[in-house]
Each structure stands twice: as structure tokens, then as C-alpha cells.
Design brief:
Structural class: alpha/beta
CATH topology of the largest domain: Rossmann fold
Low-confidence stretches: 1-12, 523-538, 619-627
CATH architecture of the largest domain: 3-Layer(aba) Sandwich
CATH superfamily of the largest domain: P-loop containing nucleotide triphosphate hydrolases
Largest sheet: 7 strands, parallel
Number of helices: 34
Number of strands: 17
């Protein structure tokens, strides 16, 4: 029974979810998977949502929070992350706030008061504060007075020791389930293997959760690997200069970050460093300058990233290789979160491998060492791989991808394909004869007839496959082994030992039921096709719109993307709307942003068109007042009015004063909503008020009432005046 009133409210406010999406966030349609997740959330189900960076995870709990009654509590691990999200929500006129250590006692108390009075729909809080002895009693009070609609656990992979960013405090969140039995939980993360997903469900105590796994394929990202030669720095400079947007450059060590930042600054490139060796104040300041487009390039260690909610990063460079594929997917995935074309470049050298191996050897736990070494080997296999980069990445997360992606170096610059079926049969047969108990190097040693101690110890020098691969080098066999893994023709254990295992496809190859082709590298420079991804960025109007956006953002002390994302500016530059109505139809323009920014951007577009000698539509924008959209509470009043309820009945049903309901109806008439004035004001009164307005004009209510007499109320006059105003504006 508890779900019914919540669902009723949702349908009362919005005939459909698309209307709510457009009204609050400005988008006409949901991204893949979002609608089903939101529908499940509105049914108060526990959810596990695995959706890649840029896929729209946040909307999956933000929109239900605006439709359901009560407070949605969002658990977020970093101060910067929660502050960015709250800024973006407030810019859409959504009542959200955060509580963290950056606030003084006065601000904390005032925000807590706002929460208890029901003025806040989304609260962002860190797990440490949420579970503190002082905060839990406050949360109990919120649950009693306002109601908690949902717990949304963002970055949920932090709960798992098998995740790439384990945080022990996340493990304690399971206590929320025991304390608030009736409150559903939504766990959200961008990356999670099968093992991590199972861990999240168990550690958070999710009850029969609805599991939503979106594709990990980020189609807008171009992936490439370059050899880190002596020209690597010159190539990096070229990448940055060719790229017009923001860039992140990852390095393994603090020293490398500082050196690279210094060199870039000497090249007159606006770059700042970010690593754990800087003070908290300096890191925060540098991050803020990067987010607000005051600086283009951030050079950083992996300490930088999770808290970055910047959607318009166009380039992510790993100047050193990452430690594991999951981290690489996360870090490179900070490019193009807005869905626009962006680039991910990895510079690869064996010198970096030695640095990481040294770091791994410092680990005291042997099992941790094994897992870290296996993860490093997977990165090396990715870097040296000749298969489609997406095939390799998605395969790591258990997602099959077949064919040419057309957006990576290996697919754009394909190496010649050769039939290696015979070699594959030898390799797989050797795995079988070694009883699927050994790793790749051992199998290659057997094939190449090695005489090392391990071979003789297991008597593998007596196998029929011993020495049958002497005609191929170590690297050639390793290349084949990697390709077999990437194509799904062979499997590998993930326990740190990297033992090779056969599957059904392996046996098809050995029975000659399937051929094996692999890409064989040739000596060539991997180059970017100049101009292929540069489209409207260079257009004059787009640059002017970006300048206006930056100016407005600086005035409000928010990042530019909070005003409008790049994707909306590009559509704006293409469509060049000339009226508020046309502007409001653009993707990314909601009701609040239309009111806040519409006229300013229209003026810039109009000025540009006039300067270019383009046709400018004649309109009466100055005399036409802006038509805004109804608020949530006004829509509820309108629905009850349309059901035939009187003002007194609506006021009673909504526990509001009649004057407040009159105020709603007056604004609804102003906003061109279908209010039946005949239901509210007698026809003869309407006619008389109208006649007086025609004579006296748009003046204050008191002299109008004095002209009409005591039998007319101020509320009646006000309602008719709004309709008269609307008619006279046409």
C-alpha cells in the first residue's frame, strides 16, 4: 500500500516521465536503459546499476527523487564530487544540498533545518558522516518528519575489496538496511566485474535487486596506443595543440607530474599539477580552475579523477601505462562524458613496466602481488594487442564485441590479417596436453623446446607438442596467445596465477571447425586523421557562445558546463534559434535554464547573424513577456482543478490556504495553462471586470476594486486580470 500514493503523486505531476525529464533537465528523451531503471526506482525496488561514465547514472536517482515524496540521501565518497553535482542540480532549480567538512557549524544547522522542513529533495553526504553517532539520530528525525524515499550509493564499487578503489567505510553502509527496513537502496557504479557486482549486492544487503547492466562500449571515444619513443613529448604537444578542449594527462609518479607540468607551462600551455604531494588547498584550487575552464590541461597522478564531474574533457593521455585495465577504463573514460567525440591515447614503454613491477614487489601480501602482476600483464596485452581495442576492453568486463569498431587505432589502421589456424591448433593442443594447469609463458616454452628446469620437472619435454613451435619467436607466440584470449578462443583464470583454460571454441579450432586469423603488426607510425573529428568547434558562432557561457559561469562561480553542456551549444550553433519557443526546444534546455539564459543566448545569436548578413526573423521579443513553465505544486493544483474541485476543496485536500490556491491558479493562467475561469468566477463578474480593465488598463488591484464595488473580491479581479493580460499580449 505504501507505493500507491507515491505513484499517484508521480502521475499527478507528470502525464509521463518524458515531460518530467524535459521540465527539470531539458532533455526530450532518455538515454538507453535510463527509463527502465527510473520505473523500477519508482516502484521502490532495490537496484544495482552498472553504467559507464557518461551514460547518465546520476539521472537514474535524481529524477525519481523529484517525483517521489521524501528525501533522497546520496552517498558520495568525495567532497568535490558532491559539490559539483549539487551545483548542477541547483542550476536546474532543483532543491539539493550537501553536508560535509567544508561547511561551518552555522551552515550545517541551516541546511539541516531546511531538510527537516521538507525544502530539500536530494542530500549528498559522505559515508563517514552518514554513519556517525551525531548524524544517525538526525537522519531518524528526517525519516519521521519528512520521510526518506531512497538511499543512492554512488561509486558503489568502493564497497568491494575486488574493486579498483576499495574504501573500508563503504562496508559499514549495510547497517542502513537494518535501521531503515522500508527504504530502498540504489547502488550505482561505472565499472564492476562479476565478482565486484556480487560483492556489492552482498555487502550492501540489497534485497532481490533489479540489476541493470549497460554496455561498457563508449562509442564516442577514440582509443590508441603509441610507442613511447624519444619523440613522445613532441607528440604529446601536438595532441594538446590539435585538441581545442580540456585535457587530462596521467603520469605514474609525482616527480613526472611536476616535470611535465613545468615543460608544458614553458611551452605557453595553461597546465597545472595534481598529486598527493600538494597541499589540500592547492589541489582543490587547481581542480577548481580546471573544472571552470581557467586552465586547459591537468597533469596528474591517479589521485585525480573520481571527483571530476567535468563532461567536456576532449583528451585523456596516459603518458605512462596504467596499473590495470579497470583503472584505465575509468581514467580514459573521463573523456567525452557528454557523448561528444574525444580521444584517449596511451604511451607505452617497457621502462614503465619496470616502475610498476618495483611498486608491486613492495606489497607484503603474496596474493596481492600475484593479482597485481596479472593485472599488469593484462595491460601489457592490451597495449601490444593487434585486435580491436574495444574487443579487448569489453572482454575484460565480460561483454562480447565482435567486428571492426572503426574508432581505435587497430581498426582505423588495420595490420595485415594472416591465417594462423595451424599455429593456434598447436598452441591450444599444448594447453590441453599440459592439463590446463599452466600460464602462457610455460606453454610457449614447451612449444619452443625450452630446456628449463620447470619443463623437465613436469616431464613436458616428453609431450608431443614439445618443440613443434621452434619456427616462431617468443613474441610471435605471445602475440597469438593474446589474440586467442581477446577473441574468446581461450580463457584465463583471474586468481593471480593466469592459468590458461580451454573452452568450447578452443575445441572447435582444434577439430578444424573454426579458422583463426590474427593481425600481424607492420612498422608504421600510428597517426590521427587530421580534421576527421573536428567539426563545428571551429565555427565562429560556437566560440562566441562558449565565451558567453564562460562569462555567465564566472558570474555565478560555477563551471561552464553547469550553464550548458558542449552538446547543447553545438546544437544551438547549428539550429540558431531566434525565439524563446525555439530555444526551449533544444536538447539540454529545461524550464529554469530557458528563463535564466534564453534571452542572453538569443541576443548573441541575433548579433552574430546580423554581422554575417544572415536573415534575422522580425519578432517582438521586447514586448512579449517570457512564458515560464508551471512548478510542481502548481501542476498538482491544476490537476485537482481539472477534476472539478472547488478552491476550498483543493485547499483542504492539499492542506494549504485558499489564498495559496488562488495564487497557483493565477500563475497557471499567466503561464497559459488550461484553467477554466468559468468554474472560478461568475460570468457576469468576468464581463464587468473585463470592461473596467479595458478602460483603466493594467493597474493595481485596489483602484479596480474601488471602481467595481464591494461585491467583487480581490481574488476574482486578479484571476480575470491575468486572463486579460494574456489576451492582450497575443
Amino acid at each position: 500500500m505504501q507505493n500507491a500514493p507515491k505513484k499517484a503523486i508521480a502521475m499527478l505531476q507528470y502525464p509521463n516521465l518524458e515531460q518530467a525529464l524535459k521540465y527539470h533537465f531539458g532533455y526530450d528523451r532518455f538515454r538507453p536503459g535510463q527509463r527502465q531503471i527510473i520505473e523500477d526506482a519508482l516502484q521502490n525496488r532495490d537496484l544495482l546499476v552498472v553504467m559507464p561514465t557518461g551514460g547518465g547514472k546520476s539521472l537514474c536517482f535524481q529524477l525519481p527523487a523529484l517525483i517521489k515524496k521524501g528525501l533522497t540521501v546520496v552517498v558520495s565518497p568525495l567532497i568535490a564530487l558532491m559539490q559539483d553535482q549539487v551545483e548542477a542540480l541547483r542550476n536546474n532549480n532543483i532543491s539539493a544540498t550537501f553536508l560535509n567538512s567544508s561547511l561551518n557549524v552555522y551552515k550545517v544547522r541551516s541546511r539541516e533545518d531546511a531538510i527537516l522542513s521538507g525544502k530539500i529533495r536530494l542530500l549528498y553526504v559522505a559515508p563517514e558522516r552518514l554513519l556517525s553517532e551525531r548524524f544517525l539520530p538526525f537522519l531518524d528525525l528526517v525519516h519521521h518528519q519528512v520521510g526518506i524515499s531512497t538511499f543512492a550509493i554512488d561509486e558503489a564499487h568502493c564497497v568491494s575489496e575486488w574493486g579498483h578503489d576499495f574504501r573500508p567505510e563503504y562496508r559499514q553502509l549495510k547497517s542502513l538496511r537494518k535501521r531503515y527496513l522500508d527504504v530502498p537502496t540504489i547502488a550505482l557504479t561505472a565499472t564492476a566485474t562479476d565478482r565486484v557486482r556480487s560483492d556489492i549486492i552482498q555487502q550492501l544487503g540489497l534485497k532481490q535487486p533489479s540489476i541493470h547492466l549497460a554496455s561498457f562500449n563508449r562509442q564516442n571515444l577514440y582509443y590508441e596506443v603509441r610507442a613511447k619513443s624519444k619523440q613522445a613529448y613532441a607528440e604529446l604537444l601536438e595532441l594538446i595543440r590539435d585538441n581545442e578542449g580540456s585535457a587530462i594527462i596521467y603520469c605514474l609518479t609525482r616527480k613526472k607530474v611536476d616535470e611535465l607540468t613545468f615543460k608544458l607551462q614553458n611551452e605557453k600551455i595553461s597546465a597545472l599539477p595534481y598529486h598527493a604531494g600538494l597541499s589540500d588547498e592547492e589541489r582543490t584550487q587547481n581542480q577548481t580552475r580546471f573544472i571552470r575552464d581557467d586552465v586547459r590541461v591537468m597533469v596528474a597522478t591517479i589521485a585525480f579523477g573520481m571527483g571530476i564531474n567535468k563532461p567536456d574533457v576532449r583528451l585523456v593521455v596516459h603518458f605512462d601505462i596504467p596499473r590495470n585495465l579497470e583503472s584505465y577504463y575509468q581514467e580514459s573514460g573521463r573523456a567525452g562524458r557528454d557523448g561528444e567525440a574525444s580521444r584517449c591515447t596511451l604511451f607505452f614503454s617497457f621502462g614503465d613496466i619496470k616502475t610498476i613491477e618495483w611498486s608491486i614487489n613492495q606489497k607484503t601480501d603474496p596474493q596481492e602481488q600475484l593479482i597485481a602482476k596479472q593485472q599488469l600483464r593484462q595491460v601489457i596485452d592490451y597495449a601490444e594487442g593487434t585486435d580491436c581495442r574495444r574487443t579487448i576492453q569489453l572482454g575484460y568486463f565480460g561483454e562480447r564485441f565482435a567486428g571492426n569498431c572503426g574508432n581505435c587505432d587497430n581498426c582505423r589502421h588495420p595490420k595485415p590479417m594472416q591465417d594462423w589456424t595451424i599455429e593456434a591448433m598447436k598452441f591450444l593442443s599444448c594447453v590441453a596436453r599440459c592439463k590446463e594447469r599452466f600460464g602462457m609463458l610455460h606453454i610457449i616454452d614447451v612449444l619452443r623446446g625450452s630446456k628449463n628446469q620447470k619443463i623437465t620437472q613436469y616431464e613436458h619435454d616428453k609431450l608431443s607438442t614439445y618443440g613443434i613451435g621452434k619456427d616462431k619467436s617468443l613474441e610471435e607466440w605471445r602475440m597469438l596467445g593474446r589474440s586467442l584470449l581477446h577473441q574468446g578462443l581461450l580463457e584465463q583464470t583471474s586468481d593471480g596465477y593466469s592459468v590458461l583454460k580451454l573452452n568450447a571454441l578452443s575445441w572447435q579450432v582444434m577439430r578444424r571447425q573454426r579458422t583463426v586469423s590474427i593481425a600481424v603488426p607492420i612498422a608504421q607510425k600510428i597517426s590521427w586523421e587530421e580534421g576527421s573529428e573536428k567539426a563545428v568547434e571551429a565555427e565562429i558562432l560556437l566560440q562566441r557562445l562558449r565565451s558567453l557561457r564562460k562569462q555567465l559561469a564566472d558570474e555565478q562561480f560555477v563551471p561552464p558546463y553547469v550553464v550548458f553542456p558542449d552538446s547543447t551549444l553545438k546544437v544551438m550553433a547549428q539550429v540558431q534559434p531566434q525565439t524563446l519557443s525555439e530555444f526551449g526546444k533544444l536538447s539540454g534546455v529545461g524550464s529554469h535554464k530557458l528563463a535564466q539564459y534564453g534571452k542572453k543566448f538569443l541576443a548573441e545569436i541575433k548579433a552574430y547573424r546580423q554581422e554575417q548578413g544572415l536573415l534575422v526573423e522580425q519578432q517582438q521579443d521586447d514586448s512579449t513577456s517570457f512564458v515560464s513553465f508551471p512548478s510542481d505544486t502548481e501542476l498538482v493544483t491544476l490537476k485537482l482543478h481539472q477534476q472539478g474541485l472547488s478552491i476550498a476543496e483543493i485547499a483542504l485536500k492539499r492542506n494549504l490556504s485558499p489564498s495559496t490556491i488562488f495564487n497557483h491558479l493565477s500563475k497557471l493562467i499567466e503561464k497559459k495553462q488550461p484553467v477554466d475561469l468559468n468554474q472560478l468566477v461568475p460570468l457576469e463578474h468576468q464581463q464587468k471586470i473585463w470592461q473596467v480593465l479595458e478602460v483603466l488598463g493594467d493597474i493595481a488591484l485596489t483602484p479596480i476594486k474601488e471602481q467595481l464595488g464591494e461585491s467583487y473580491t480581490f481574488d476574482e479581479i486578479r484571476l480575470v486580470r491575468e486572463k486579460w493580460r494574456r489576451e492582450n499580449r497575443k
